[in-house]
């Protein structure tokens, strides 16, 4: 027959494994966690067509990563209001999401901007406050009026305070366009038959200083990945403690343009959290044991 103290210690021995299990469950949740893990419905992320059998016009079309290379910030453009600007005007204190599109594009460019807007609408970071968005037309024929029309359209979708100060639609001459597209590795071609451009789809994230930090491919972008890319490119100027944990457990893979789990780091973090929870359990049990022992001594006095 167990006395009261026996029951107490048996209960404590049962509590410890439960807390360890909770600790492991917590770490599994951290590994899978994305504050904005939803993916807008639609076309799966683009991985690119096979290299063999491409039409001639597509052979030189694509995106070559230029990670950690510097964007020339002195390149002149015109913003949606008709004001002369330099692309460097949008850098300095915030990371920048860059989308290379053309405003008269009948399909793919709209999908890029739609996918970007959908992801930005999910993440809890605000354009204009924590980062800037620059849509840059690589069609020298695009006009300021068309750029303004696009800005109005997407600001209606991305309805956040201050967004008009953080989302910009630029046009420029061919020389300026070439300097930027070559710097970021964006290759496109003009199809004389259709009078349209053949081009790849994707967006880039740059540091406040203008260095290329991340590439995301396709027309839809995982909100978790986009948020982590912006936070990482900010050089610790924005983000939360949860973002720091996520960036410890998830690393960017340039081959896929996604963030993947670093198993060893997750295991290390799991070990640390488990030790902390076990120490907390030990302290709680010791305090309870001391208080009960004191109560028994007081009762027999």
Describe the structure in your own words:
The protein is α+β, with helices and mostly antiparallel strands. The chain has 2 domains: 66 residues; 184 residues, Glutaredoxin. The protein is 42% helix and 18% strand. It is built from 7 helices and 12 strands. The strands form 4 sheets. Strands 6-5-4-9-10 form a 5-stranded mixed beta sheet, sandwiched between helices. α1 runs antiparallel to α7. The longest helix is centred in the C-terminal third of the chain and has 38 residues. The N terminus is likely disordered.
Structural class: alpha+beta
Order of helices and strands: HEEEEHEHEHEEEEHHEEH
Could you tell me the strand content as a percent range?
15-25%
Biggest pleated sheet: 5 strands, mixed
> What general outline do the C-alpha atoms trace?
elongated
CATH architecture of the largest domain: 3-Layer(aba) Sandwich
Question: Order of strands in the sheet with the most strands?
Answer: 6-5-4-9-10
Radius of gyration, in angstroms, nearest whole number: 27 Å
Can you identify the CATH superfamily of the largest domain?
Answer: Glutaredoxin
Mean pLDDT, all residues: 79
Residue share in helices?
40-55%
What distance lies between the first and last C-alpha atoms, to the nearest angstrom? 26 Å
Could you name the CATH topology of the largest domain? Answer: Glutaredoxin
* Oligomeric description of these chains: single chain
CATH class of the largest domain: Alpha Beta
Low-confidence stretches: 1-16, 22-50
β-strand number: 12
- Counted up, domains total 2
Helical element count? 7
């Amino acid at each position: 027959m167990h006395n009261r103290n026996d029951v107490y210690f048996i209960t404590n021995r049962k509590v410890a494994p439960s807390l360890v299990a909770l600790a492991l469950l917590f770490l599994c949740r951290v590994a899978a966690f994305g504050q904005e893990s939803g993916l807008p419905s639609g076309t799966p992320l683009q991985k690119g067509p096979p290299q063999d059998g491409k039409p001639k016009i597509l052979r030189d079309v694509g995106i070559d990563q230029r990670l950690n290379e510097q964007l020339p910030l002195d390149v002149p453009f015109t913003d949606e209001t008709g004001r002369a600007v330099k692309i460097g005007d949008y850098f300095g204190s915030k990371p920048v999401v860059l989308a290379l599109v053309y405003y008269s594009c009948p399909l793919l460019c709209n999908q890029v901007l739609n996918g970007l807007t959908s992801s930005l609408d999910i993440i809890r970071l605000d354009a204009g406050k924590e980062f800037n968005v620059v849509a840059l037309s690589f069609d020298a024929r695009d006009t300021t009026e068309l750029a303004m029309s696009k800005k109005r359209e997407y600001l209606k979708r991305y309805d956040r305070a201050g967004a008009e100060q953080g989302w910009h639609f630029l046009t420029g001459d061919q020389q300026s366009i070439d300097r930027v597209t070559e710097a970021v590795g964006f290759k496109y071609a003009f199809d004389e038959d259709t009078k349209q451009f053949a081009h790849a789809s994707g967006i880039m994230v740059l540091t406040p200083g203008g260095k290329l930090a991340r590439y995301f491919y396709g027309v839809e972008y995982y909100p978790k990945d986009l948020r982590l890319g912006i936070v990482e490119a900010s050089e610790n100027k924005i983000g939360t403690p949860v973002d720091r944990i996520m960036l410890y457990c998830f690393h960017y893979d340039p081959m896929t343009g996604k963030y993947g789990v670093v198993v060893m780091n997750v295991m290390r973090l799991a070990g640390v959290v488990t030790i902390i929870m076990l120490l907390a359990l030990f302290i709680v049990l010791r305090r309870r044991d001391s208080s009960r022992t004191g109560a028994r001594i007081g009762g027999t006095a």
